[in-house]
Amino acid sequence: MQTTKRQANRRDFLGLAATAAAAGLGAALPISQAAAAAGSPGTDFTRWLDSIPGKYRQVYDMPELNKGMGLAWSWVFLLTAAQGYGVPESDLGVVIVLRHDAIPLALQDSAWAKYNLGEQFKIEDPDTKAPAVRNPYYLKPGSLPIPDAGLRQLMDRGVRVAACDMALTVYSGAVAKKMGVKPEAVKKDWVDAVLPGVTVAPSGVLACNGAVSRGCVYVFAG
What is 50-220's CATH topology? Predict the structure, then answer.
């Protein structure tokens, strides 16, 4: 049943992505297109990649929520790599890529409440067991028993987090269609609601590729 649901989600996503591309909804990406066209050596995205710290680096690819395990594994890496390699935490670099069905984790509570993201993405609040109207993974990793593995705590320790612009475009468009409002307005709301410290990358798959190109070991966390 879970496999069938994921296959259906992927089919829906690809169909919506094609529609978004045809409509030009993904055109406004958070990189300097003019600089890239002029042959500039870097963009906002590549400069973000260059900011990944440490000698030992890992990227966690989160296309699905997976109960927040990508957050837990990031916390475990910071703990055990420092012990295992005998190095300070400053020698470690962690990247989390939020894409596809995990994209709500990149958004502030205001977007969760306004757009019923818990209901839309089938994410429950671990305290109430009802569809979440707040981001339950920001200050703690959902119901996982690791209180300091929330997204905020990880970012405070230097973890880099990327949100997929393609997912923001596609899913905000799908929600806009359900609500009968303009997709551009919902997309703007979602981008404005991206959590402080989270970088919007042109796509999640590009963020994974870029992190690997900067020496991160790839780990599928969804």
Answer: Hypothetical Protein Ychn; Chain: A, (3.40.1260)
CB proximity list for 194: less than 8 A, separation 6 or greater: 106, 107, 108, 163, 168, 200
> Measured on CA atoms in the order 12, 200, 56, 83, is the torsion positive or negative?
negative
Longest dimension (CA), the chain: 56
> Is residue 63 within 8 Å of residue 204, measured between CB atoms?
yes
Cβ neighbours of residue 85 closer than 8 Å, sequence gap 6 or more: 56, 91
User: How far apart are alpha carbons 129 and 92 in whole angstroms?
Assistant: 35
Taking the domains of the chain in order of start, what are their residue ranges? 50-220
Q: How far apart are CA 56 and CA 87, in angstroms?
A: 10
Q: How would DSSP label each residue in 29-93?
A: -SS-HHHHHTT-S--HHHHHHHT---SEEEEEEESS-GGGHHHHHHHHHHHHHHHHHT--GGGEE
**Do 99 and 63 touch, CB atoms closer than 8 A?**
yes
CA–CA distances in Å: residue 70 to residues 8, 27, 146: 23, 29, 12
The pLDDT, as a whole number, for residue 124 is 95
Chain segment 178-205, per-residue pLDDT in tens? 999 999 999 999 999 999 999 999 999 9
